[in-house]
Amino acid sequence: MTKVGILTSGGDCPGLNAVIRGAVLKGTTVHGQQFVGFLDGWRGLVEGNVMDLDRPTVRGLSHEGGTILGTSRFGPYQGPNGGAENIARTLDRLGVDAVIAIGGEGTAAASQRLYDEGIKIVGVPKTIDNDLDRTDYTFGFDTAVEIATEAIDRLRTTGNSHKRCMVLEVMGRGAGWIALHAGTAGGAHAILIPEHPETMEQICAWVTSVRDRGRAPMVVVAEGFTLPGMTEVYSTKGLDGFDRPRLGGIGEVLAPMIEERTGIETRATVLGYVQRGGVPTAFDRVLATRLGMAVTDLVARRQWGNMVALHGTDIAAVHFDEALVDHKRVPLERYQEMRVIFG
Questions:
Q1: 179 and 267: one domain?
Q2: Which of 12, 52, 92, 129 does the annotation list as catalytic?
């Protein structure tokens, strides 16, 4: 019987538990696999901290947000027990034959390195930003868009009541997919994303045009958006566990600039971690379950070094290095498609 260890790494997002449930149910039923979960991401793999995963453990998990295994920003090469050689000894001691790593770009990169050094590992892509290449959608994205769209709907009512310009900041470090989809769904009058900067003059022109029609302007901005002339993304919160700037606050920078230049009272709301919490949407539950089930097929076929991905409506296998070639960013034509109706 193949014993498989599952870990969830990086930022949490809705749907992680559905992946775990899908993997355990199909793996045990169809492939005769046995499962354990590594606690707190790569830290559990490095330190050998596990919990048993069986059908009773994962019962009813598909609708729960977060991850029952915990997660962290700890990397597999950190600490005295890190590195492929030490991890191989830990896996042997635990009797674990293969690893399923659920995570984003950083997790995929670490998994690729471990695979190159002999670890039997496969992956499931996870990021609410939807910016991982070679998969059409990642679970968690749809939930984040739904939450952001509801926030837009709510902000519009108070904006209309006070005739204010409302600025909503959503997540999106290097890719503006959440801002684009939520802004489109919520009927935003301007959508500002990292891939395609806009000038302050253009933003204010859109806002003024909306005001002149007797409407309350709604602006959606991704946290990684920069104005022309900004040499780096806005950050005042130090570095995260991967030594990247912790983003958040560009909306609060834009709001007073809009108010000063247009004379329209402007308020900013930073949605933050609300986007990553709570229960997943039906779409994300289904996608996450399918990906969890499919990754056990990779284990059964010994397709190490691959991750599962969504291509159209089909689940496919993609090698880690293919997925890491580039970030999936919003192309110019997709942005321009919506830009023509801003203002």
A1: yes
A2: 129
